[in-house]
Amino acid sequence: MYDLQTIEAIKRLKYKYMRCLDQKRWDEMAECFVEDATSAYSGGKYSFEGRAAILAFFKESMDSPKVLSSHRVHHPEIEITSETTATGQWGLEDVFINEEMGVTVRGAAYYKDEYVKVGDTWKIKHTGYERAYEEMESRNDMSWLTITQRFGQAD
Questions:
Q1: Which residues pair with 126 in a beta bridge?
Q2: CATH number of the domain that 116 lies in?
Q3: What is the pLDDT of residues 2-48, one digit of tens each?
C-alpha cells in the first residue's frame, strides 16, 4: 500500500518547484533539489548536472521582468520505490511569454522525476520532460495584445 503522506509530500515538492519557477524565487527553488540533481528539459535539449547549473539556466533564461510564465502540473503518478526513493510522472501545460523577443510559447509535456528523501524532507534528484507539443506565436503580429498585470506589480 502506498504511503499517502509520502505521496502528498512529493506532490507539494513538485508544486513548490513550479510556483518558484513562475515567481522567480530562485533561492526557494534551490531548496527543492539535492546538490547533485540533474535535469533534462525538452527531451534532453536543455540538460544540466548539479543544482547550481539548473538554477543558473533558469536565472539566465527567465530572470527578467519581460519574461512571464505559467507552469501547471497535474495527473501525478507517484511510485514509492523505497523508504528514501520515489519516482513520478506528471502532465505539464505551460505558457512562456518573452516580451523582448516578441513571442509566446505554449505547450504540453510529460515530466519524469526521481525523488530522494534527505532527513525528513523529499527533494528532486532528477527532473525532465518530453514535449507532447509546443507552439510559438509572434506577439509582434498582435499589437493589441498587452500585459496588464505582472506578479508583484501592476502596469
A1: 38, 114
A2: 3.10.450.50
A3: 599 999 999 999 999 999 999 999 999 999 999 999 999 998 899 99
Give residues with Cβ within 8 angstroms of 120, minimum separation 6.
Answer: none
48 domain-assigned: yes
Percentages of the chain per state (helix, strand, coil), in multiples of 5: 30, 50, 20
Cell of 52: 547550481
Q: Is 38 among the domain residues?
A: yes
Three-state SS at 136? strand
Bridge-based pairing of strands 149-150 and 153-154 is antiparallel
The helix (H) or strand (E) run that includes residue 59 is: helix 51-62
For the stretch 118-142, what's the b/e string if a residue is b when 16 or more beta carbons lie within 10 angstroms of its beta carbon? eeeebbbbbbbbeeeeeeeeebeee
Task: State the Cα–Cα distance between residues 18 and 29, nearest whole angstrom.
Answer: 9
CA–CA distance, 139 with 70 (Å, rounded to integer): 17
pTM above 0.85, yes or no: yes
Whether 152 is in a domain gets the answer no
Q: How many domains does the chain have?
A: 1
Residue 62 lies in a domain: yes
The pLDDT tens digits for 123-149 are 999 999 999 999 999 998 888 888 888
* Parent domain of 12: 4-141
